[in-house]
Amino acid sequence: MKMISISALPLALLAAVMLGCSGDTNESQNAAPETSRPQTAQQPAVGASPSFTLLDASGNIHNADEWIGKRPVVVNFWGTWCPPCRREIPDMVRVYEEYKDRVEIVGIALNDTPDKVTAYAGQAGMSWPLLIGDPQVAIQFGIQSVPTTFFFDAEGNLVEVEDSDGSMTGALVGSRDYATFKRAIETIIRESDRPS
User: Fold this and answer.
1) Count of other CB atoms within 10 angstroms of residue 101
2) Whole-model pTM?
3) CA angle 87, 77, 151 (to 5 degrees)
């Protein structure tokens, strides 16, 4: 099976992603996210719909359109090596169990191996689709640090969601808690239920 690793990214971008994770100091469930560094390089614009093709941990090919444009979708960039990612996963598991009939989460692991992703997902109870990220998808989404989470309505449009501090954003950058994920998911459900 051919694997593409984020380690093939230019060294500066790889360092930015890894430092973005390790620099997150959001320790408590209610702490505001760190905002001292730029949040993204060039995130997709609100209303944009992404397109990507990635492998899952078993080597199967998946396209974004399997999920995006069919129902509300949360795309979460993360890594097994990232403490802030690990910190938010129990809250993502909890919110997914509550909303999995209406929303899909798609995890994209960066700078990870399929074996590590499969093992960690099993331990953490992550039952949503998990893909192995490549340099192009990280660049497409403007990822500078993980975790970074995007929210799409049922038509596949990126939706602004309310962050922990009440501000509106196209992506949540840094570790978040259950209440923030729940509020964001309810936003994309509402946007999806509005008549066109």
Assistant:
1) 6
2) 0.80
3) 100
